[in-house]
Each structure stands twice: as structure tokens, then as C-alpha cells.
């Protein structure tokens, strides 16, 4: 498969260049739409009860961190979580989550949410 792709690229480098430019244009368009969506989401969230939004974000953070922490260490889970695009979205929506940077902080937040969420169930 790789040999076939290499042969095709050597035969037609112009197609590769055109495809690369096309993908870059699409990426720029997606970045614009993403920033616009974040802007309008903040406006929409102002109309909702802030306590409910924070509770929901905490639940989302808990589920996301739990998925990365499964069969792993807090260090590895933190590294993977900081690269996740949904994490960046949560940080923009809740500044308290954006302050979490170290594995120790993530671990404490995760454990506190774990206690809160298991008590409510």
C-alpha cells in the first residue's frame, strides 16, 4: 500500500500540492467556524443558570479524565488530557478548570468529583 502511494506521488506531485492547499484552506475555514462557535456558545450559556452549567462541566471533566485515566497513571492521563480539543473547550467555558495544570491538581479535582458524584447517586 505504501509503495503504491509513493509511486503515485512520484508520478503526480502536482496533485499532492493541490490536495495540500485544499486541506489547508479547509483547516482555516474550520478554525474560523470553531472560534465563532465558541463566541456564540458563551453568549448562549449566559442565559442558562450558571450553577447548572458548572455542574455539567464538572461531570464532563470527570468522564473525560476517567476515560484517560483508565488503566493508566495520573501523569499519562494529564498529558493526554491537555492535548484533547474538548479539554480546551471546557477551559474556555470554565476558568476554574483552566487553572488545572499539574497531575497533582488533576488528581485532587478528579478525586473530589468522584466523592461528590458517587454520593449523589
Structure in words:
With 121 residues, this protein is mostly helical. It has 2 domains: 1-47; 49-121, no CATH class. The chain has helices at 2-11, 13-46, 50-69, 74-83, 85-93, 95-98, 103-120. The model has no long low-confidence stretch (mean pLDDT 82).
Distance between termini?
51 Å
Average pLDDT score: 82
Radius of gyration in whole Å, from Cα? Answer: 20 Å
- Topology, number of strands: 0
Task: Compute the number of structural domains.
Answer: 2
In terms of structural class, how would the helical and strand content be classed? mainly alpha
| Low-pLDDT regions | none
Shape category:
flat
Task: Estimate percent helicity.
Answer: over 70%
Strand content: under 5%
Order of helices and strands: HHHHHHH
How many DSSP helices? 7
Biggest sheet layout: none
Summary keywords:
121 residues, mainly alpha, 2 domains, 0% strand, flat
Write the layout of secondary structure elements.
Layout (H helix, E strand, L loop, with lengths): L1 H10 L1 H34 L3 H20 L4 H10 L1 H9 L1 H4 L4 H18 L1
Helix pairs in contact: 3-4, 3-7, 4-7
A few lines on this structure:
With 121 residues, the chain is mainly α. It has 7 helices and no strands.
